[in-house]
């Protein structure tokens, strides 16, 4: 395993970057961060729609969320891989295909997290704000969301770790990320699949484990801040 | 889905059957393994705890696809030659995918069961013992019924995840629903019809699991908050 790491660490880290496309761990992280950042505003909108007083808005958001949650991410990836080029007329790179699928998928899951944060707030908060004459959107923006989003920070961070793991599915449509890079290494060595894929699992473990441990301090801060309120 | 011929639809239904089989096998194996892990975790001997903790953390921080690739490409290397030939002659993809998926899910399920057990105050156990019930009676009438109730909601969502995650097995060539959809799409270019049909099948499966879950909640009078799975 050490020999493989010695020979191919650069490829596993950044892919063939200066000479070819960026890949490896760096690409995996870029995909996860972009996916997370892009799905957050969508998730907030979906969550607001789900708690909307208008029934049809709440219903349609619920249908969307439940449908996305009911299908495998891989299916969603194939939808964006095969259908988007047909719809838009031009072909998307693997990066964008995977990113779009991830954003749709994550926004559905994250909206549930945000919604639970909104619903956990005491009703009095909204009622007080509204009875002071503040409009619906201003109430959401200045009273509800700041508290709700802060309270669900820990759940969002664990969602981030699972996004890192989900980027591995890009391998199926040949996106240059960590799993793809490891597979390239495996194809070069041919005789050492156990070591290569063991190493791959280990790299994911180190990245995700250290990430979730680092984010745990954030969780602790949130908890302390909430206890003091 | 009138765009698909009967033969194509039938072939997808066969894929669905494989998906369901894989799901059922994995669910049973994962559950049994999880129970074993929980039991090992309760043994008052530090290395037992370390082992289970390491097992759980490893499987939670490595993507399922990587586990599947690791088991499919790497593990057979360790097997004796004769057994390996036998395995490859007998649907190796399916059994290795089942092993990888079960091992991965067992980590999550064991945590669900453990948190269900932990949610019961120790005083319940003590009280039951103090009233003269035996250890087994206490377990059977006091602890386990309550633990099952608290772990049903997470177990239902875990089943849902496992059902969707079986799609990952297509990466190593298990001919399940996603694989079949992909295959028919590349033969016919009927993108919308094939992926539409596959998505509907997944959604039906997922909604069935959610429905079973809601029946269980009713049967065991579990309060899930807003009344949805």
TrEMBL record, chain A:
<feature type="domain" description="ABC transmembrane type-1">
    <location>
        <begin position="25"/>
        <end position="215"/>
    </location>
</feature>
<dbReference type="InterPro" id="IPR000515">
    <property type="entry name" value="MetI-like"/>
</dbReference>
<dbReference type="GO" id="GO:0006865">
    <property type="term" value="P:amino acid transport"/>
</dbReference>
<feature type="transmembrane region" description="Helical">
    <location>
        <begin position="87"/>
        <end position="105"/>
    </location>
</feature>
<keyword id="KW-1003">Cell membrane</keyword>
<feature type="transmembrane region" description="Helical">
    <location>
        <begin position="25"/>
        <end position="49"/>
    </location>
</feature>
<protein>
    <submittedName>
        <fullName>Amino acid ABC transporter permease</fullName>
    </submittedName>
</protein>
<keyword id="KW-1133">Transmembrane helix</keyword>
<comment type="similarity">
    <text>Belongs to the binding-protein-dependent transport system permease family. HisMQ subfamily.</text>
</comment>
<dbReference type="InterPro" id="IPR010065">
    <property type="entry name" value="AA_ABC_transptr_permease_3TM"/>
</dbReference>
<keyword id="KW-0813">Transport</keyword>
<dbReference type="GO" id="GO:0022857">
    <property type="term" value="F:transmembrane transporter activity"/>
</dbReference>
<dbReference type="InterPro" id="IPR035906">
    <property type="entry name" value="MetI-like_sf"/>
</dbReference>
<feature type="transmembrane region" description="Helical">
    <location>
        <begin position="61"/>
        <end position="81"/>
    </location>
</feature>
<keyword id="KW-0472">Membrane</keyword>
<dbReference type="InterPro" id="IPR043429">
    <property type="entry name" value="ArtM/GltK/GlnP/TcyL/YhdX-like"/>
</dbReference>
<dbReference type="GO" id="GO:0043190">
    <property type="term" value="C:ATP-binding cassette (ABC) transporter complex"/>
</dbReference>
<keyword id="KW-0812">Transmembrane</keyword>
<dbReference type="Pfam" id="PF00528">
    <property type="entry name" value="BPD_transp_1"/>
</dbReference>
<feature type="transmembrane region" description="Helical">
    <location>
        <begin position="196"/>
        <end position="215"/>
    </location>
</feature>
TrEMBL record, chain B:
<keyword id="KW-0813">Transport</keyword>
<comment type="similarity">
    <text>Belongs to the binding-protein-dependent transport system permease family. HisMQ subfamily.</text>
</comment>
<feature type="transmembrane region" description="Helical">
    <location>
        <begin position="20"/>
        <end position="40"/>
    </location>
</feature>
<keyword id="KW-0472">Membrane</keyword>
<keyword id="KW-1003">Cell membrane</keyword>
<feature type="transmembrane region" description="Helical">
    <location>
        <begin position="159"/>
        <end position="179"/>
    </location>
</feature>
<keyword id="KW-1133">Transmembrane helix</keyword>
<feature type="transmembrane region" description="Helical">
    <location>
        <begin position="191"/>
        <end position="212"/>
    </location>
</feature>
<dbReference type="InterPro" id="IPR000515">
    <property type="entry name" value="MetI-like"/>
</dbReference>
<dbReference type="InterPro" id="IPR010065">
    <property type="entry name" value="AA_ABC_transptr_permease_3TM"/>
</dbReference>
<dbReference type="InterPro" id="IPR043429">
    <property type="entry name" value="ArtM/GltK/GlnP/TcyL/YhdX-like"/>
</dbReference>
<feature type="transmembrane region" description="Helical">
    <location>
        <begin position="86"/>
        <end position="109"/>
    </location>
</feature>
<protein>
    <submittedName>
        <fullName>Amino acid ABC transporter permease</fullName>
    </submittedName>
</protein>
<dbReference type="GO" id="GO:0006865">
    <property type="term" value="P:amino acid transport"/>
</dbReference>
<keyword id="KW-0812">Transmembrane</keyword>
<dbReference type="InterPro" id="IPR035906">
    <property type="entry name" value="MetI-like_sf"/>
</dbReference>
<feature type="transmembrane region" description="Helical">
    <location>
        <begin position="52"/>
        <end position="74"/>
    </location>
</feature>
<feature type="domain" description="ABC transmembrane type-1">
    <location>
        <begin position="16"/>
        <end position="213"/>
    </location>
</feature>
<dbReference type="GO" id="GO:0043190">
    <property type="term" value="C:ATP-binding cassette (ABC) transporter complex"/>
</dbReference>
<dbReference type="GO" id="GO:0022857">
    <property type="term" value="F:transmembrane transporter activity"/>
</dbReference>
<dbReference type="Pfam" id="PF00528">
    <property type="entry name" value="BPD_transp_1"/>
</dbReference>
């Amino acid at each position: 395993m050490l020999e493989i790491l010695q020979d191919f660490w650069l490829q596993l880290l950044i892919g063939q970057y200066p000479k070819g496309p960026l890949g490896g761990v760096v690409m995996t992280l870029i995909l996860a961060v972009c996916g997370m950042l892009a799905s957050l505003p969508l998730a907030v909108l979906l969550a607001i729609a789900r708690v909307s007083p208008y029934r049809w808005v709440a219903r349609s958001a619920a249908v969307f969320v439940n449908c996305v949650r009911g299908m495998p991410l891989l299916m969603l990836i194939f939808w964006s891989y095969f259908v988007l080029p047909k719809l838009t007329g031009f072909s998307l790179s693997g990066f964008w295909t995977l990113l779009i699928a991830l954003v749709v998928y994550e926004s559905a899951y994250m909206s549930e997290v945000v919604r639970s944060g909104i619903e956990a707030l005491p009703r009095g908060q909204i009622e007080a704000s509204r009875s002071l004459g503040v409009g619906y959107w201003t109430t959401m923006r200045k009273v509800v969301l700041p508290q709700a989003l802060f309270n669900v920070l820990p759940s969002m961070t664990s969602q981030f770790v699972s996004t890192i793991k989900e980027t591995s599915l890009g391998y199926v449509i040949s996106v240059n990320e960590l799993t793809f890079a490891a597979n390239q290494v495996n194809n070069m060595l041919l005789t050492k699949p156990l070591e290569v894929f063991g190493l791959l699992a280990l790299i994911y473990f180190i990245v995700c484990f250290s990430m979730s441990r680092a984010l745990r301090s954030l969780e602790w801060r949130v908890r302390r801040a909430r206890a003091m309120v | 889905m009138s765009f698909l011929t009967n033969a194509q639809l039938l072939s997808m239904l066969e894929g669905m059957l494989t998906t369901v089989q894989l799901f059922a096998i994995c669910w049973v194996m994962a559950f049994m393994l999880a129970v074993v892990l929980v039991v090992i975790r309760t043994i008052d001997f530090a290395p037992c705890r370390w082992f289970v903790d390491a097992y759980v953390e490893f499987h939670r921080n490595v993507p399922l696809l990587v586990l599947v690739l690791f088991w499919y490409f790497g593990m057979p290397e360790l097997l004796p030659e004769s057994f390996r030939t036998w395995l490859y002659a007998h649907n190796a993809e399916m059994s290795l995918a089942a092993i990888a998926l079960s091992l991965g899910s067992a980590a999550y399920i064991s945590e669900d069961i453990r948190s269900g057990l932990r949610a019961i105050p120790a005083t319940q156990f003590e009280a039951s013992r103090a009233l003269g019930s035996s250890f087994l009676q206490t377990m059977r009438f006091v602890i386990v019924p309550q633990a099952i109730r608290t772990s049903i909601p997470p177990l239902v969502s875990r089943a849902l995840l496992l059902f969707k995650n079986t799609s990952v097995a297509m990466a190593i060539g298990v001919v399940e629903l996603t694989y079949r959809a992909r295959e028919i799409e590349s033969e016919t270019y009927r993108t919308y019809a094939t992926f539409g049909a596959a998505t509907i099948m997944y959604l039906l499966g997922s909604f069935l699991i959610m429905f079973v879950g809601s029946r269980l909640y009713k049967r065991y009078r579990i309060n899930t908050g807003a009344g949805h799975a």
